[in-house]
Amino acid sequence: MAGQRLAKERNIMIESTSSTSQSLSGAPEALWTAQQVAEYLKVSRSWVYQKAEAGLIPVIRLPGSSLLRFEPEAIRAFALGKWEPVKVIPFRAVSSRP
Question: Which class would CATH give 29-83?
């Protein structure tokens, strides 16, 4: 019994430490695909793409391609309600005429 309880506590500790954006080896956690985000959030993949395109979930657009990738820590923050979309302030060009 005590051995089972200790094993359970150890698994809980490992799960709680693995929620950071770095693995136990110290290497950064790999970026997630839309499918992995959908599985984590328990939504459809198309929902993930729609929200990413609308700027409502944190996303990384890979240069030179249409691929979208997601930082696991940012998605976890989004799921906990700790992430807000970036507010874009419209840019007004200053007239150079006197």
Answer: mainly alpha
**pLDDT value of residue 30:** 94
Question: Could you tell me the residue ranges of all domains in the chain?
Answer: 29-83
CA distances from 66 to 42, 44, 49, 62 (A): 23, 19, 11, 7
pTM of the predicted model as reported, rounded to 2 decimal places? 0.61
User: What is the SS3 assignment for the chain?
Assistant: CHHHHHHHHHHHHHHHHCCCCECCCCCECCCECHHHHHHHHCCCHHHHHHHHHCCCCCCEECCCCCCEEECHHHHHHHHCCCCCCCCCCCCCCCCCCC
Closest CA to 75 of 25, 23, 43: 43
- Residue 68 has phi, psi (to 5 degrees) of -115, 140
Name residue 62's amino acid.
Answer: L
The 10s digit of each residue's pLDDT in 36-90 is 999 999 999 999 999 999 989 999 998 888 899 999 999 999 999 998 877 777 7
